[in-house]
């Protein structure tokens, strides 16, 4: 059977290819959109750095310092409670 | 792919190459609509805010997961589908898509939907979606469908789970409310399906699929419909007493359940000769009512979840 230039099969293939293109663009859009939403919903810029997949010692030092500050802030209250008990 | 392959099969009227629509048909879009609606309600009534885009992706993933299990169903049931008039035109038995392609699409989309749902929301919801796909594709399709007349009762769990997946996607945790939504869909499925089975002449028997109407007859099916309608009512009403319910839902649910039980009782009182005489009028009405029953129950849950101010504004605008 001789094939015409534009056969019905060609049209169907084109439809399939266009459909796949739309699906792939949609997938890219979803991944991009999710990335934007997830990063914008982070508490601080420092948290964003955690997505680098690289060890960031500076972040750990900052976290330790923050934890230490919290402990220091809580300490006088404990002393106050002890004095009250005496 | 080259044009050389085109010569095969074109002269005998077959359509050797599938169009994009054939692959979409593998995902059973009509079944997907129920999944999308109930999952959306589960997600929206959950007591946790979800970013609209994340919510959209979650519902999309649940829909794709449902579609994937449909493709797996079409792969496994290609032999049955080829023997039944209603399903003969599906892409696999019609020869437009190969069974292996349906399997590949089903597996790929299952993996994709579970992975994306996990990344978009949480892995608990993703594992529930994976279980739903497994239950439909393996427990229902491969095991129950050909072995017991209760296939749609137990297999109905797969169709009932989406609101739970939606809820967990939003909250990350289980609760009583989504399980009652699951119970509502689960108990609704048998009377809905059997009402249809009573008036649609099916060829399940020829295909070797045990359906209640074929294995136990119309009388037993009518008894089952009434029993399930009676059991369904307390489940639907109980949902109204939880945090997602309220007076509007309860009022609607009482009316809907009264109508549904009355319809089921009407079907139960009839025998086959009476039904055939009026061309299954009561059965058709009950089937139509069952569609509204589920849609309105979940719709009323959405109304209850909408703040009062918005509801009042909407009512004023409508008037």
UniProtKB/TrEMBL annotation, chain A:
Region named Disordered: 62-86
Keywords, sorted A to Z: Membrane, Transmembrane, Transmembrane helix
Superkingdom classification of source: Bacteria
Membrane-spanning parts: 20-40
Protein name: Cytochrome C oxidase assembly protein
UniProtKB/TrEMBL annotation, chain B:
Pathway membership, UniProt: Porphyrin-containing compound metabolism; heme O biosynthesis; heme O from protoheme: step 1/1
GO MF terms, alphabetically ordered: protoheme IX farnesyltransferase activity
Example GO biological process: heme O biosynthetic process
Subcellular locations according to the entry: Cell membrane
Protein's UniProt keywords contain Membrane: yes
GO cellular component terms listed in the entry, alphabetical order: plasma membrane
Membrane topology recorded in Swiss-Prot or TrEMBL: Multi-pass membrane protein
Native source organism of the sequence: Wenxinia saemankumensis
Enzyme class: transferase
Protein name as catalogued: Protoheme IX farnesyltransferase
HAMAP family: CyoE_CtaB (MF_00154)
UniProt entry keywords in alphabetical sequence: Cell membrane, Heme biosynthesis, Membrane, Transferase, Transmembrane, Transmembrane helix
Transmembrane segments: 31-50, 56-76, 97-117, 123-144, 151-173, 179-200, 225-242, 248-268, 289-310
Reactions the enzyme catalyzes: heme b + (2E,6E)-farnesyl diphosphate + H2O = Fe(II)-heme o + diphosphate
Keyword ATP-binding: no
């Amino acid at each position: 059977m001789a094939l015409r230039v534009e056969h019905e099969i060609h049209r169907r293939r084109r439809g399939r290819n266009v459909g796949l293109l739309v699906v792939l663009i949609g997938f890219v859009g979803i991944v991009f959109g999710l990335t934007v939403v997830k990063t914008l919903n982070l508490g601080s810029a420092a948290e964003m750095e955690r997505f680098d997949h690289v060890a960031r010692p500076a972040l750990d030092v900052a976290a330790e310092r923050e934890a230490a500050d919290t402990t220091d802030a809580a300490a006088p209250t404990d002393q106050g409670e002890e004095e009250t008990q005496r | 792919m080259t044009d050389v392959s085109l010569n095969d099969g074109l002269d005998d009227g077959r359509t050797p190459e599938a169009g994009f629509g054939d692959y979409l048909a593998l995902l059973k879009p009509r079944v997907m609509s129920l999944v999308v609606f109930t999952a959306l309600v589960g997600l929206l009534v959950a007591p946790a805010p979800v970013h609209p885009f994340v919510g959209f992706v979650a519902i999309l993933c649940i829909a794709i997961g449902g579609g994937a299990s449909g493709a797996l169903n079409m792969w496994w049931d290609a032999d049955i589908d080829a023997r039944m008039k209603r399903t003969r035109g599906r892409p696999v038995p019609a020869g437009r898509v190969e069974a292996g392609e349906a399997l590949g699409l089903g597996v790929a989309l299952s993996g994709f939907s579970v992975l994306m749902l996990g990344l978009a929301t949480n892995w608990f919801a993703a594992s529930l979606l994976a279980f739903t796909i497994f239950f439909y594709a393996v427990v229902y399709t491969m095991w129950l469908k050909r072995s017991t007349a209760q296939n749609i009762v137990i297999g109905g769990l797969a169709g009932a789970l989406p609101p739970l997946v939606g809820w967990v996607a939003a909250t990350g945790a289980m609760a009583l409310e989504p399980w009652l939504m699951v119970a509502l869909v689960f108990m609704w499925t048998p009377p809905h399906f059997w009402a249809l089975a009573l008036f649609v002449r099916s060829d399940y028997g020829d295909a070797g699929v045990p359906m209640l109407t074929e294995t136990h007859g119309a009388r037993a099916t009518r008894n089952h419909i009434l029993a399930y309608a009676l059991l369904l009512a307390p489940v639907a009403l109980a949902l109204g007493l939880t945090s997602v319910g309220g007076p509007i839902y309860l009022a609607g649910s009482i009316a809907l359940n009264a109508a549904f039980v009355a319809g089921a009782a009407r079907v139960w009182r009839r025998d086959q000769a009476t039904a055939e005489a009026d061309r299954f009028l009561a059965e058709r009405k009950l089937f139509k009512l069952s569609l509204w029953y589920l849609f309105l129950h979940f719709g009323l849950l959405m109304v209850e979840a909408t703040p009062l101010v918005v509801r009042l504004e909407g009512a004023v605008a409508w008037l």
